[in-house]
Amino acid sequence: MAATGGAAATSVVVLDRGNNTTCTINLHGATVVSWRVNNQEQLFVSKLASFDGKRSIRGGVSFVFPQYGAWSFGAQHGFARITRWNLERPPERLHNGDVEAIFSLMDNEFTRSMWNYQFRITYRLILREKELHFHIGVYNPSKELSFTFNLLLHTYLKVPDVRRCQITGLHGCTFIDKVWWNLLISYYSMVCTKIFFTLYDKTRDGAIYQEGREVVAVNEWTDRIYQHTPQEHIVTNVVSGRKMRIHKYNFPDTVIWNPWVDKAREITDFGDDEFPNMLCVEAGHVSSPVILLPGTAFEASQIMQIIIEGNVSRKTKRNR
To answer: Any idea which UniProt keywords this protein has (predicted)?
Structure first.
């Protein structure tokens, strides 16, 4: 059964497939704040997360658009995750028992104050028995103006101990190490602004490395943009020691993030002791922007699937 409150008044939409399998979406940012399978929560949301309708919600799956990272025109990671979305189509049960809902966001006075372009986004979520599907469409209705944007699903996985997790599919990929870059900025801004900007000009296009590990583990502050990654990653030792398959389409980048001890203390809406119980594996288009011509659309998708041992070879089917 699918459930919502009154569509016009509620801030939360619930997809309910039965058997204690649900997905909860907060209309503030269209943020997926819960995904429970057989009553087991799969997503991490900080105990200090803000639900005041102003700040982004720390955790779950948030929608990053049109900017990834710091932005001189507005909030970090853009406005989509701090804007109230419209419930385009309330939760509906499909013929196979799955439940879907569609959300949308259009340009308005608030978005145009930061980014003066017309746009329309549709965001379709489908809850299956052991899967959660995300289908995104970005449309440029202008007849004259093109625009560029970043897009990312900022996904926080709940894990028993991040030090025991491994991520496949990154071997041989190039990556941008944002931790190294942030440390460089902090150090040189303290030493000498002039020296810093000279060094910045020389290194900003060259701080790219190649991943040599067969599987990636996280044992320290990690903030990396892996480029040209394959369509599938498997994350081990998530909830109940299981594996999570992440299958993505038209998302060429994968961001891996965990703030670890010291960085966690700097984040006001994140508990000092919470970093061992989360791991961000984020599908995105961020190392280079999407260019959207007038009258055209961009589509991307992600499927998160819990792998049940004995069913590992099962192929994930994209639900059109």
So the answer is: Isomerase
